[in-house]
Design the sequence.
């Protein structure tokens, strides 16, 4: 049922590299989100978007940036990866139909920065 | 500030028995949504059940049901006839009218054979 895709599934990269985590959904949802989660810990909202050209920072400060040029695409970029960025990143989308708000999550990207 | 609190970091239950996971939240809004999400070892979040705050009737999805107490700002999840596949992290979440989703700390549930 869920048509939201994240790539890559796993990424191991060296310090200082620029990386982009991809997130795409084929459901035409207006709202998209990025969450960061460390093992066994709660999810923290780092970015969200309510539509094209709309992006906002979440509750947890993040050095990453996002863009929303197309409805279906919400990539997250780290200009210079550091070991402190090692975490799981979860993308989600939703469509507010007034009475049927429902979120869909991607499979996540497990990022390891060496 | 809106917050979600899950006071049980870990819980365990015997297979086929019933378990209840607690969740409380804080908000000044009147209309909002509440969710329970399951996160198995695969790490993908799976929606378990959803409740609209304007509905007084408790949501039910097969073996999963909630006890929604709006005045007390409580939203507990009851899992009946627990199965081994129910072993996972469970997150309670609150979404305000603006669409901002806030998660609790999670409860790690272990179902034992």
Sequence:
């Amino acid at each position: 049922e869920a048509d939201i895709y994240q790539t890559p599934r796993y990424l191991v990269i060296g310090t200082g590299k620029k990386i982009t985590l991809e997130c795409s959904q084929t459901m035409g949802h207006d709202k998209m989100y990025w969450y960061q989660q460390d093992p066994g810990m709660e999810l923290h909202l780092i970015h969200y978007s309510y539509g094209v050209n709309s992006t906002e920072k979440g509750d947890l400060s993040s050095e990453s940036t996002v863009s929303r040029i197309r409805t279906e695409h919400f990539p997250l970029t780290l200009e210079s990866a550091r070991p402190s960025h090692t975490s799981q990143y979860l993308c989600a989308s939703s469509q507010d139909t007034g009475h049927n708000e429902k979120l869909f999550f991607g499979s996540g990207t497990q990022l390891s920065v060496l | 500030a809106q917050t979600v609190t899950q006071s049980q970091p870990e819980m365990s239950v015997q297979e086929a028995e019933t378990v209840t996971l607690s969740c409380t939240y804080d908000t000044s809004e009147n209309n909002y949504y509440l969710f329970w999400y399951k996160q198995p070892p695969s790490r993908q979040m799976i929606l378990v059940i959803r409740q609209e705050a304007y509905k007084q009737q408790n949501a039910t999805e097969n073996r999963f049901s909630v006890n929604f107490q709006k005045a007390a700002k409580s939203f507990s999840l009851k899992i009946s006839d627990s199965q081994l596949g129910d072993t996972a992290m469970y997150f309670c979440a609150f979404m305000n009218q603006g669409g901002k989703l806030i998660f609790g700390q999670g409860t790690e549930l272990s179902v034992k054979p």
